[in-house]
Amino acid sequence: MKDILKPLAVALALAFAGSAQAAGPAGNEPIQPIKAAKASDPALVELGKKLFFEPRLSRSGFISCNSCHNLSMGGTDNLKSSIGHNWQKGPINAPTVLNASFNVAQFWDGRANTLKDQAGGPIANPGEMAFTHELAVEVLSSIPAYKAEFRQVFKSERLTIEEVTKAIAAFEETLVTPNSRFDQWLLGKKDALNKDELAGYQLFKTSGCTACHNGPAVGGNSFQKMGVVAPYKASSPAEGRVAVTGKDADRFSFKVPTLRNVELTYPYFHDGEAATLTQAVDTMGRLQLGRTFSSTENAQIVSFLKTLTGEQPKLTLPILPPSTDATPRPQPF
Question: Post-translation: what modifications (predicted)?
Answer without folding.
Answer: Binds 2 heme groups per subunit.
